[in-house]
Amino acid sequence: MSANRTIPLVNLSDFENGDEATRQAFIKQLGTAFHDIGFVGVTGHGIPKSLIDDFFVAAKKFFALPEDVKRKQEIPGAAGQRGYTAFGKEKAKQSKVADLKEFFQIGQETEGMSDEERNPRVAEVPEFMDLGMKLYRQFEQKGNSLLRAIALGLNLPENYFGEYTKDGVSILRAIHYPPITNEPASAIRAEQHEDINLITLLVGASAGGLQLQNAAGEWQEIVPENDEIVINVGDMLQRLTNNHLKSTTHRVVNPPRSEWHKPRLSIPFFLHPRPEMSLNVLESCVSPSNPQHYPPTTAGEYLDERLRQIGLKK
């Protein structure tokens, strides 16, 4: 493990396969990381590297398609939650300019869905959706393992989150940051922001640039190693725990000018519950020293509000 890491590293197999003492140690490590930093690196997750690599290749093929072909995958009225979103549409909630990215989002598919409700298939890259759904299921499974550990760390029933994430509205997003060809006005690849959801799982990007803002306000680079997946707390989990678990500000900065010609591809999985889940602050997270910071709301209401703020919903 590198000596200059900015986030702790934990092994998910300690929780999934370890004895009780090993599981308890993992729960404590994870809870401390999310309370202190909001980010953690995870190894031992068991997601096949070949699946991740194959999806990266398929995503590159999709983003290399002509603009008019990609735009056929845009779904009117979907607020970017499925299909393609063109370059320059999404921005951070406090930003006046759009991020330097385009993306494709793969949403939940359940039995009984009509073809119109499912994710759009890309005829030009048929393997893209097949691989994407396989990776979606892997992320969903491992994300729920992490949520079980989080629940136990909060003294909640182990399946507290699982009741709400079954058939939840999680998103697998393939993000393409094209080569930078002109001096950006004030835009960077992804302006500073916090994620909306419960937790985010991110597999290593094809280029650097991911940074988190620490408690002192300093920007620190996150460099995943080997098969590590980077996990961070989202705003829904921060609200639920009354800021006990931290949704940390992060961004993707532009590369040095000498590397502007290099594109960047990253694959985050945003783990969301079903819309009806209550985000009312947990009573156990309220105390005289930490009074309630947030009004009652549901996951669906909060997601709707945030999608409007970032420009994906009118």
Automatic annotation (TrEMBL):
Organism domain of life: Bacteria
Pathway assignment: Alkene biosynthesis; ethylene biosynthesis via 2-oxoglutarate
Protein name per Swiss-Prot or TrEMBL: 2-oxoglutarate-dependent ethylene/succinate-forming enzyme
Similarity annotation: Belongs to the iron/ascorbate-dependent oxidoreductase family.
GO molecular function: 2-oxoglutarate oxygenase/decarboxylase (ethylene-forming) activity; metal ion binding
Known EC number: 1.13.12.19, 1.14.20.7
Catalytic activity: 2-oxoglutarate + O2 + 2 H(+) = ethene + 3 CO2 + H2O; L-arginine + 2-oxoglutarate + O2 = guanidine + L-glutamate 5-semialdehyde + succinate + CO2
Residues covered by the Fe2OG dioxygenase domain: 167-273
InterPro entries assigned: DIOX_N, IPNS-like_FE2OG_OXY, IPNS-like_sf, Iron_ascorbate_oxido_reductase, Oxoglu/Fe-dep_dioxygenase_dom
Any one GO BP annotation for this protein: ethylene biosynthetic process
Coiled coil: none
Keywords: Ethylene biosynthesis, Iron, Metal-binding, Oxidoreductase
Biological source species: Neolewinella aurantiaca
Leading EC class: oxidoreductase
